[in-house]
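Problem 12. The chain below contains 151 residues. Write out its predicted structure in token notation.
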Amino acid sequence: MNKTLEMPMLYKRLSKVGLQPKFIQEKALPEWWDAELENNPVAVLEAAGRIAKRLGLDMASVLDPDAPITFKQVIRPKFKKIQKNSDESRLIVAQGLATRVAEMVTYACKRPFTDMATNAFEIRNFILKNNSYIDLDAILMCFNVFKVKTH
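Solution.
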């Protein structure tokens, strides 16, 4: 038996992964969304699709009312943690949202990404020769200095 996706249950399932209804309503639902649409199954499906896309969620898990909601999988993320024994499962929401932000940033890039022609050790040495520490500005400056490979 197929279950219909309903907005109240979707909010509840999203809350279980740390995404509260207010956040969903303000950040993930389309601008035209209205509470009256929660009774329209087609509108709920469209809203669920947009929520999944905007927040980097696995679409199949969002659309299946019986499945737990999951984020798109990034192959074996490596978390840098303050405490050695931190619970990585608590970082999944942050990792999922950060992945989505990174995807959105790539859409804003006017120039397509290309690999740098040098290795990380050379880049690090170059940055530290001209800066006392490595930060985003220093890394971006390297893209202007080093030649990039074209494919």
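Discussion. The mean pLDDT is 79. Students who got a different answer should revisit the alignment rule from Section 12.3.
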